[in-house]
Design a protein that fits this description.
The protein is α+β, with helices and mostly antiparallel strands. It is built from 5 helices and 3 strands, in the order ααβααββα. It has a single domain, classed as Winged helix-like DNA-binding domain superfamily/Winged helix DNA-binding domain (Arc Repressor Mutant, subunit A, Orthogonal Bundle), CATH 1.10.10. A 3-stranded antiparallel beta sheet has the order 1-3-2. Strand 2 and strand 3 form a beta hairpin. Pfam families: HTH_34. This is MarR family transcriptional regulator. It comes from Actinoplanes utahensis.
């Protein structure tokens, strides 16, 4: 086995927390900070740090109105997430396929 990562593999998104945040943001237009905090179980400061890392990469846009903050996945972030998902599929290969019926588990 080689140590090479498939094209599209994204170290930033590979972090379970950041991957979860991107997955939570993907189907929505904007998501409230409080929802992301509850869904991930992160503290305010930890969530803010992870969102800032994604924002610095251009993957997330954060809008603040008063004390409320909302986040959305940018087109760049959506593309990076899709590329990373394809890279994971390539990396896992046949491991995602069901076990053939004629082969014992």
């Amino acid at each position: 086995m080689t140590d090479a990562q498939p094209p599209g593999f994204n170290e930033l998104l590979h972090s379970p927390v950041r991957l979860s945040l991107a997955a939570l943001l993907a189907p929505a237009v904007f998501v409230e900070f409080s929802f992301l905090r509850e869904a991930t179980g992160l503290s305010d400061s930890a969530l803010s740090k992870q969102l800032t890392a994604l924002q610095d990469a251009g993957y997330v846009e954060i809008r603040r109105t008063g004390r409320r903050a909302n986040a959305r996945l940018t087109d760049t972030g959506r593309h990076a997430l899709n590329q990373h998902a394809q890279a994971l599929r390539a990396l896992l290969g046949d491991a995602l396929d069901p076990v053939p019926a004629d082969r014992p588990e």
